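Late entry, evening session. Most of the bench is empty. Finally got around to the prediction I had been postponing all week. Sequence below, unchanged from the version circulated by S.P.
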Amino acid sequence: MSKLNDKDNIENIHLAYIRINYYLSGMTESEFNEDPKTRDAISYCLLKLGKSISALSIEIRDSYNGFPSIIGLYGEMKNFSDEELWEMLNNSEFGVLQYSDFFNNMYEVEINGKKKTKNIPENKKVEYVWDYKYPIRTKSSIWTVKKK
């Protein structure tokens, strides 16, 4: 058996995400916990996903900002408990499904040849506190505190 190249690994990642999304479509957490076939299928997809991500070359990983390397750890895990599995899929901090768009973009760029778009962060609105007791002002590039 030959070693897979980056293109093969990206296709495996894409396929794993398609399968996970298909298996979970319209399913609630209680339905998921009651269906051992779906849990087993998704566990297999997570292991395959983790191994494929871990096998990607450093060049591919470095060429994408914000590469979610935490998913690669899933390829090292042997068993997931039923409670942990739903959390690993849907957690807002480290859940697998939140990276679906990231890897779909990687697939489109690397396999289909689309141009890579830069991830430009949205300008976050800065909130100022206007009723602060000692407002800070600058004068001649020295920080001073204006007394009321």
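Two things to note before I forget:
The chain has one domain: 6-110.
The first strand starts at residue 136 and ends at 139.
Will write this up properly tomorrow.
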